[in-house]
Design goal:
Length: 107
């Protein structure tokens, strides 16, 4: 269950990062509200996952999902650059996430 909570928390991090960008510095009500709600939900799920997962594993995977997901959303929805170097950086983050998962105890 902890891994499911962690993955959902990571996906919610992608959502709140996107809507934070769309909030124009928290000047738009709807994107700002979505940011705050999904941010809170992401933190709650992360904290629940940390009950049984090691801190380093949980936090690294959570931020990794958010970082790679935000990169993909930025490229696909916001027209940001997908240069070979940025893609390589995202792939290295994914490799780190996979290594953290396989080196961690199951919960």
């Amino acid at each position: 269950m902890a891994w499911i909570q962690l993955v959902i928390a990571g996906f919610l991090e992608i959502v709140w990062a996107y809507f934070m960008k769309k909030s124009a510095g928290f000047t738009l009500l709807v994107p700002s509200t979505i940011t705050m709600i999904t941010m809170a939900a992401s933190f709650v799920l992360l904290s629940l996952a940390m009950r049984s997962l090691p801190l380093g594993t949980a936090y690294t995977i959570w931020t990794g999902i958010g970082a790679v997901g935000a990169f993909v959303v930025g490229v696909v929805l916001l027209g940001e650059s997908a240069s070979p170097l940025r893609i390589l950086a995202a792939l290295l983050i994914i490799a780190g996430i996979v290594l953290m998962k396989v080196s961690s105890p199951s919960a």
